[in-house]
């Protein structure tokens, strides 16, 4: 019989399950985290749990928070199990499970209560995992999207905000009025210079309603950049059954992840921070090179395999990587066109990092899916592929493979695979993307006319020529022929 996960049941769990050896009742809050999804619990919450297990940092426990209606369901599920989570590491050499206890509370999903929790002087860090698209970036200008309805609302209703950034501002005003030190705001999302992007959104929103507050934030609030990495699939009945049947635990929201994590942070925390370097995190003066390496080689690699694999009918990432043409395509694109755009990092060998990425993608235990990698292409392509393409064009580097990746995405946006099976919409802009993709059957440049995605890249003659050539190849001869031509 599986045991329902609660604090009182910890001692009854099977011996194969690791669990907190520290006194959770003695933990004190120090971090409020918005966006308590799988990645956060497999990554940041795991690092803190490891630190607490080492007897350190017990005044840095996590308080969860959410700002969307769906966050309430996560809160309810975690509340029923005393904020505990089972994390299963999907090591092909043997699975392991640990119950992590670094979260000690979760604020009710109500703006006023979230603001009050942020205003508590015990909270010295407010951290965010709100997805790459959650920072109100104007896709056309790459600047702050002041016209977004959420931002317009929060600018005119600063005391009743609906976005996390409006809540941060309201909490900052409370703390400043009470004479309390401001908290550090730490983004944990996959964004280039995520701290800078977060700072821009917070200060530009403040500028709309309270310029003096905006200036105070610029002078007093830290927004450290960070690079985060751990492949973490979504939780489904498959994962819940794994935790139940393999480890004897009934957990409504378990997390499975690969046995690899990386966290590189700028060391800019004026109100202090947990000593996470003791459990494997890296603190550096400038995280940008590590960040770019990960965004281009790993996230760009995911994009590279996603669309040709979907068109060929692959569902799981490890099955796609077992297809020799997909693995060869990934290696060739990375080594020929992606890695050359990166500047050296002391102590890092890009060839070794690429081998690590290939082995991580090929891990059959993860069960990561191609549909997940294809998700939200209109937001991900401008972050993970197009900047690499722009750099390659700027330096007159080869771009045929990068143009081929965009051509694969275009063909995918038609929403049928090569066998004629329908591909379910998985982008907020799916309908518009499909129209652009179908129009490209007659005029390949029609797809590039989507300025929201491509911006000035659409006007580059070299990109236009390469994309036109590569798109015609995949439309007329298919994915395998396109890959073969590139490899040749």
Give a brief outline of the structure.
The protein has 22 helices and 14 strands. It has helices at 38-42, 44-53, 71-80, 111-119, 149-156, 164-178, 194-209, 211-220, 237-247, 288-311, 317-321, 324-338, 350-361, 370-374, 377-384, 386-394, 400-412, 430-439, 445-448, 451-454, 461-477, 479-487; strands at 3-4, 17-18, 29-34, 61-65, 85-89, 96-100, 103-106, 125-128, 184-187, 226-229, 249-250, 255-257, 262-266, 282-284. The protein has a 5-stranded parallel sheet, sandwiched between helices. A 4-stranded mixed sheet has the order 2-6-5-12, with helices on both faces.
Key terms for this structure?
single chain, 488 residues, alpha/beta, 5-stranded parallel sheet, 4-stranded mixed sheet, 14 strands, 11% strand, Mannitol_DH_N, 6-PGluconate_DH-like_C_sf, Mannitol_DH
What can you tell me about this protein's structure?
There is one protein chain. By secondary structure, this protein is α/β, with parallel strands linked by helices. The protein is built from 22 helices and 14 strands. The protein has helices spanning 38-42, 44-53, 71-80, 111-119, 149-156, 164-178, 194-209, 211-220, 237-247, 288-311, 317-321, 324-338, 350-361, 370-374, 377-384, 386-394, 400-412, 430-439, 445-448, 451-454, 461-477, 479-487, and strands at residues 3-4, 17-18, 29-34, 61-65, 85-89, 96-100, 103-106, 125-128, 184-187, 226-229, 249-250, 255-257, 262-266, 282-284. Strands 7-4-3-8-9 form a five-stranded parallel beta sheet, with helices on both faces. Strands 2-6-5-12 form a four-stranded mixed beta sheet, with helices on both faces. The chain has a three-stranded mixed beta sheet with strand order 10-13-14, with helices on one face. A hairpin with a 6-residue loop joins strand 5 and strand 6 (96-100). The longest helix has 24 residues, at 288-311. The radius of gyration is 23 Å and the shape is globular. The termini are far apart.
């Amino acid at each position: 019989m599986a045991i329902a996960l609660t604090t009182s049941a910890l001692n009854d769990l099977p011996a194969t399950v690791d669990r907190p050896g520290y006194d959770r009742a003695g933990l004190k809050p120090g971090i409020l985290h918005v966006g308590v999804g799988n990645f956060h619990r497999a990554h940041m919450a795991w690092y803190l749990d490891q630190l607490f297990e080492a007897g350190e940092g017990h005044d840095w426990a996590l308080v969860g928070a959410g700002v969307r209606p769906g966050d309430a369901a996560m809160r309810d599920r975690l509340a029923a199990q005393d904020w505990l989570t089972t994390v299963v590491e999907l090591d092909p050499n043997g699975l392991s499970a640990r119950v992590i206890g670094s979260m000690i509370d979760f604020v009710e999903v109500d703006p006023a209560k979230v603001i009050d929790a942020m205003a508590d002087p015990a909270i010295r860090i407010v951290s965010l995992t709100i997805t790459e698209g959650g920072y109100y970036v104007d896709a056309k200008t790459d600047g702050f999207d002041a016209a977004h309805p959420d931002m317009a609302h929060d600018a005119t209703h600063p005391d009743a905000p609906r976005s996390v950034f409006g809540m941060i501002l309201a909490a900052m005003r409370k703390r400043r009025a009470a004479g309390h030190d401001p908290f550090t705001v730490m983004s944990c999302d996959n964004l280039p210079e995520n701290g800078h992007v977060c700072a821009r959104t917070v200060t530009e929103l403040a500028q709309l309603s309270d310029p003096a507050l905006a200036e105070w934030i610029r002078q007093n609030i830290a927004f450290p950049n960070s690079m985060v990495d751990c492949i973490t699939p979504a939780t489904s009945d498959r994962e819940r059954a794994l935790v139940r049947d393999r480890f004897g635990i009934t957990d409504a929201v378990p997390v499975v992840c690969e046995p690899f994590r990386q966290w590189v942070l700028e060391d800019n925390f004026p109100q202090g921070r947990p000593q996470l370097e003791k459990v494997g995190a890296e603190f550096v003066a400038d995280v940008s090179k590590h960040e770019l390496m990960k965004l281009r080689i790993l996230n760009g690699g995911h994009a590279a395999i996603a669309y040709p694999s979907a068109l060929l009918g692959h569902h799981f990432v490890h099955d796609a990587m077992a297809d020799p043409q997909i693995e060869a395509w990934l290696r060739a694109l990375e080594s020929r066109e992606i890695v050359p755009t990166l500047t050296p990092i002391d102590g890092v060998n890009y060839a070794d990092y690429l081998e690590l990425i290939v082995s991580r993608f090929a891990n059959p235990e993860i069960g990561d899916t191609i549909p997940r990698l294809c998700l939200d292409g209109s937001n991900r392509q401008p972050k993970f592929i197009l900047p690499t393409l722009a750099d390659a064009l700027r330096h007159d580097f080869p771009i045929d493979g990068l143009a081929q990746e965009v051509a694969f995405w275009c063909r995918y946006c038609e929403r049928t695979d090569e066998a004629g099976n329908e591909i379910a919409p998985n982008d907020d802009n799916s309908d518009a993307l499909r129209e652009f993709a179908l129009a490209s059957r007659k005029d390949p440049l029609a797809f590039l006319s989507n300025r929201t995605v491509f911006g000035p890249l659409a006007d580059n003659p070299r990109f236009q020529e390469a994309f036109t050539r590569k798109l015609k190849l995949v439309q007329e001869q298919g994915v395998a022929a396109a890959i073969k031509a590139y490899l040749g």
